[in-house]
Amino acid sequence: MKIITRIRNKFLPACRYIQHLATDDYVDNILSIADFSRISSESASKIENVIFVTPFMTLHSGGLTSTLRIAKRLSDAGVNVEMTCPTSVDCETMMRNAKANLESYDAKYIIWNEVMQHQYDFVIAVEDIMIYYARKLKGHLIYFVQDYEPYFHPVGDRYFLSKKAYELGEDIISLGNWNIEEIKKNCKNNANLGRMYSVEFPFESREYPYRKRNFDEYKNKKEINIAVYIKREPKRLPGIVMSMITHASKEFEKRGKHLNIYYFGLHKVEKPALGTNLGRISKKEIQELYTKCDFGMVASMTNISLVPYEMIGSGLPVIEFKDGSYTSFLGEDTAVLLDTFDFEELVNKIEFYTNNPLQLMEITNRARQKVSNLSWDDTGNQFYRILETIVKKEIKS
């Protein structure tokens, strides 16, 4: 530990300086193109041509995969859907990554300079910073909000640029109502907000088939398998979760049990203190992980993650935090909810539910009932109907 401290003290100032330079460069790039005047969005008279403005399409991105799912449903409805990234011309790689993220859809990426010459019915930005670029395009501007993104940053340059992106007057379509509540709560001048709509937060049940578990067997388990979704993002509480799990594992050993920890979502190079880091794994590998595990743990501290939905759909009991957004979506009686960040609470609650299989079955069944009628088909249809509503309002006005 002393060696780590010395290394940190020696290199931390340099690392922070590099980080500050990167932030300065990032902010300067945005301010060089940003327009902060309230949007006077072009009227939409039809839904024939739609462009999604995205960051670089990376592999295993939940938010970008959700965008692809919406784009697919619009395409299925007969809409011509294109995609663009204003910060990259590598359309080939982005289309290849999009195919890996959603095999059933062939995304069409167009380079930014070409897109600038076209007219669209709707321009849909899918990230806070993309709003500033999307304003440059011709078409009715929509911000597809999948999280309250200012929370991703400490209060500072990027926080306020992110927050300001909601306050420019564009129409907002939110994945669930939680984002809208946060926007209204945190934006000082609600008069600057555009019209706000929401679609249901769904998951793709066909990709995560249900497996019935015999919870009576949990009573006699000397080894407990837990799937822990973690990413190096503050909203996933990586330090807290890994510390809790590590200490919980040691406490279980004292009680004569062994906790098999399977992390997924981290970069493969990471070496947790205890447990196995599976890295960023495929949907098939995630299915197999859920099948062999007894519990799944997620920290949905901002807008809820798709992961607890997928765990629930697979029949896996979920461990979540009350301080996050989970209860806003799925209530307080559908998961093993933690009140604190105390590892002993985690150990005690796992022990309680393994010793009370009927109660564990009841919360798992309630969770499954909550998500049983959700689907991306329905959410995609809701998204399309909102675009129809906007067109009708524009025609009337």
Describe this structure in words.
By secondary structure, the protein is α/β, with parallel strands linked by helices. The chain contains 14 helices and twelve strands. The protein has helices at residues 2-31, 62-76, 91-101, 112-115, 128-134, 157-164, 178-186, 238-254, 283-292, 306-313, 326-330, 343-355, 357-371, 376-396; strands at 49-53, 80-84, 119-125, 138-145, 171-175, 196-199, 223-229, 258-264, 276-277, 295-297, 318-321, 336-338. A six-stranded parallel sheet has the order 2-1-3-4-5-6, sandwiched between helices. α11 (326-330) links the parallel β11 (318-321) and β12. The longest helix is centred in the N-terminal third of the chain and has 30 residues, at 2-31. It is globular. The chain starts with a helix and ends with a helix. The mean pLDDT is 93.
Annotation keywords:
six-stranded parallel beta sheet, alpha/beta, 397 residues
Could you state the oligomeric state of the chains shown? single chain
- Average residue-wise pLDDT: 93
Q: Give the DSSP E fraction (strand runs of 2 or more residues).
A: 15-25%
Largest sheet: 6 strands, parallel
Structural class: alpha/beta
Order of helices and strands: HEHEHHEHEHEHEEHEEHEHEHEHHH
- Low-pLDDT sequence parts: none
**Number of E-type strands:** 12
Number of helical elements: 14
Shape: globular
Q: How far is the first residue's CA from the last residue's CA?
A: 66 Å
- Going across the biggest sheet, name each strand in turn: 2-1-3-4-5-6
Helical fraction: 40-55%
Q: C-alpha Rg, in Å?
A: 22 Å
